[in-house]
Amino acid sequence: MKKLISIELKKILPYPTFWILLGIYALLLFFIVFALHQLHFEGVLAMFKLQSFYTFPDIWHTVTYIAGYFNLLLGVLVIILITNEFTFRTGRQNIIDGLSKMDFLTAKLFLILGIAVVATLFVLIIGLINGLSQTPNMDSSMIFAQIDFVLAYFVQAIAYLCFALFIGTLVKKSGLAIGLYILYSKIAEPLVGFKLPSYISDYLPFHTISELIQNPAFKLVGLAVRESPLGIHFMFALIYSCVFAIGTYLLIAKRDM
Amino acid sequence: MILRVENLSKHYGPLKALSNLNLSIENGCIYGILGPNGSGKTTTLGIVLGVINSNAGTYSWFNGETGDDHRKRIGAMLETPNFYHYLSAYNNLKIAADIKGVSHDYIDKVLETVNLSSRKDSKFSAFSLGMKQRLSIASALLGNPEVLVLDEPTNGLDPQGIAEIRELIITIAKEGKTIILASHLLDEVEKVCTHVAVIQKGKLLAAGSVAEVLSGEDIIEVGADNFDKLEAVAKSYPNIKAVRKNSNGRLEISTIKPITAAELNEYFYKQGLVISHLQLRKKSLEARFLELTKA
User: Fold this and answer.
1) Domain count, chain B
2) What pTM does this model have?
3) ipTM
4) Is residue B217 very low, low, confident or very high in pLDDT (cuts 50, 70, 90)?
5) Fewer CB near the terminus (10 Å): N or C of chain A?
6) At what angle are helices A71-87 and A90-97 packed, to 10 degrees?
7) Sign of torsion, CA B72 B58 B23 B28?
8) Which residues constitute the domain of residue A198?
9) Domain termination residue (choose one: B214, B236, B266)
10) Taking CB atoms and an 8 Å cutoff, what residues of chain B touch A257?
11) Are B67 and B48 part of one and the same domain?
């Protein structure tokens, strides 16, 4: 296990694209969280006070929801890393050199876990910076009151990345896989979902994974927003992650490398 | 027994890439798998190296090992050199060494062996085809494996590179290692290998020692004014194996035991036949190969 992680690190740490995409993720998230805070509404919209979104414990909901948009970038990163293994046939060479196909997949799941951990830590740091600087009279119970959103974000990232791994393995070409990833998540599934009854459409992969953390801005207009993300969507995100991982394994096992 | 392959079959849709292939490769030989392009050489090696799934048949390495771990004891390159394009030669070999579970100390040694030491920190993407090919041989040599599997190792190399690689293969074989070499070049197999299997369209045509399979037999071409008599007399020769009229209107004679042109001439003379043409020809390996792969 340690060996698989060490091999995976040797593949990605010297890879410029890895750092560029992680860097874009971090910078965009950092600046957008701050930029939204600077918004000031006037006139009739002045009732929308964003200040409360940046204090503990609400900051956790805010920052994890915004970070959810940038999972797309992490997905692109995973697609590039997995399709490289097919394009340059290095995955094939890994097997020839002695990895089993299961080892190969396990290493990629560690990779996903690692990227999700890094992203979640970053979200945690941004949340702490904002919360600590914006919250008056806080105590530790306030800080950690809604920390379960961070756990939800971690699972959400894993689910997105498992889907990216599956798509990348399925089509093997990075451009095509990224196109499909975006097409499916942003267009195909919402369109299909629109036609289906809600008890089905609510549980389609992307819908249920993104519903894990609902838009906190709905609170502004008085809509009900789930205060805990650890419900049925959380469970479904975990189930979908397993389904995509198993699907990826079946593709690798059944196909010629 | 290093590798045993039994009844291996593989099809890609309707195309039969391999049908019922059987091979057994003994310890210590240089085993050539010879066949034209598209004959199933890479498919065979891909299957026994675990990257292509067969439709039927079995294989086992090292007296009956199946599974995945035995591949760590095999150094193999298949078709193209496969490396991370953004990593240096050295870092690429670090990954291969980790997978095989061998020390990084081997890396400098194998780079030395293939003459790439001076370029070990260059990125793989900056390598010429010949250098890439040599790097994949270096990678196969990591950890001093018992068996080397080389698929067209001289492909894309210049004549000097080809000579170097062949030299290298022979040197390695002298250390007692088993080498399995796929090639479409008859000349290469003849120069390097001790044993050979000839495959064509996924079928095994012949297998055995190079001397047995590719031995060129002598042919004597004879011409005479009276062709019918020539043919009759030739057929009466005790040592005869086959006679055949060729396109020049002459007779090609092959014998069971080797004879000299003089012996044959003497025989004809004693039978009262004057010969106008007599020539001893070695049947070329190419002719033998074409004969094997024809039909």
Assistant:
1) 2
2) 0.86
3) 0.89
4) low
5) N
6) 60
7) positive
8) 2-254
9) B214
10) 51-52
11) yes
